[in-house]
Design a protein that fits this description.
- By secondary structure, this protein is of the alpha+beta class.
- It contains two helices and ten strands; from the N terminus they run βββββαβββββα.
- The chain has helices at 40-54, 116-129; strands at 2-5, 11-15, 19-20, 23-24, 27-33, 59-60, 65-69, 72-82, 89-98, 104-112.
- A hairpin with a 2-residue loop joins β3 and β4.
- The longest helix has 15 residues, at 40-54.
- The chain is globular and about 35 Å long.
- The N and C termini lie far apart (31 Å).
- The mean pLDDT is 89.
Length: 134
Amino acid sequence: NWKEIPSQGSIRFAPEGGYSNNDLWHGVMLGAAKGTGANLADTTSQYISEMLKDNSYLKQAGQAQRVTVAGLQGLATRLSGPSPTTGKVEIVTIITASLQSGDLFYVAAIVPEADAAKYNTAFRNLVNSIKLSK
């Protein structure tokens, strides 16, 4: 019951009722961001800083954790804060990996905190299904 939501610069998917216009409160965004030429941790940190600047209601919750995405070493960073759209605490988990091009691949899973347990399996399955061409 998920569908693609038209977007500039990323691919977005959400279940019916999980979005409006350009705002997601249940769903995922996938894309690539211009790499900085630095290592994964530094590039991820810069990307997270830009995300926090664009979404000032979010704050980083804890340190990034090592993960694997599409066979690549990656990092998972959790952000949270009260959504200005729904008023509910939102959890945004950002998973990043460095592409051969030097760009940063990212997946952002977005869900209200109260629904996080219901969506964890779907988000994990999505990340585990990602295949990137070399």
